[in-house]
Specification:
about 160 residues; 6-stranded mixed sheet; about 20% strand; globular
Length: about 160
């Protein structure tokens, strides 16, 4: 059931992410927790996110689609997730972005090393509220890059 829901969200987000701002997508994905916290949902979501294999037995590869879907499931379960957007500058590739989910400060389904090289720039709490986590130095990010078309997603 977790996998089906994540893949449905991935399919929906695949097109929407190109025309709707991230803040709107997060508000759309955010749901009110059910009357009581669903026990075990967080561990089941995390276990599925760590699954390797072929479709549909593995999570979506795109970090935005995967993370927004997991954020929605965790909001519904009352797990108080955060959706984090980070960037890094990569030689030869330009500016890269990555999106991941944290619960109680712990990164889900990725190691801390996986996300340590990214500077978090925006975080959305479980209420869908946006907070800027770091000042964004556009001059640093854009030096030697003439347009935003150099922005690369890492996955």
């Amino acid at each position: 059931m977790i996998g089906t829901r994540l893949w449905l969200w991935a399919a929906l987000l695949r097109g929407l992410k190109h025309v709707i701002p991230l803040e709107t997508l997060v508000r759309f994905a955010r749901v009110t927790p059910r009357g009581h916290a669903a026990t075990g949902v967080q561990s089941r979501v995390e276990a599925y996110l760590e699954t390797k294999g072929r479709f549909p037995f593995r999570p979506p590869a795109n970090c935005l689609e995967r993370s927004v879907g997991a954020y929605r499931l965790l909001c519904r379960a009352g797990a108080d997730p955060e959706l984090v957007v980070g960037v890094r500058r990569s030689p030869g590739r330009g500016v890269e972005g990555h999106v991941w989910v944290r619960v109680a400060g712990r990164v889900l389904a990725e190691t801390t090393d996986d996300v340590a090289c990214f500077t978090p720039i925006v975080t959305f709490d479980s209420e869908g509220r946006q907070k800027r986590t770091a000042p964004l130095n556009f001059q640093l990010l854009n030096s030697n890059y003439q347009s935003t078309s150099n922005f690369q997603k890492t996955n």
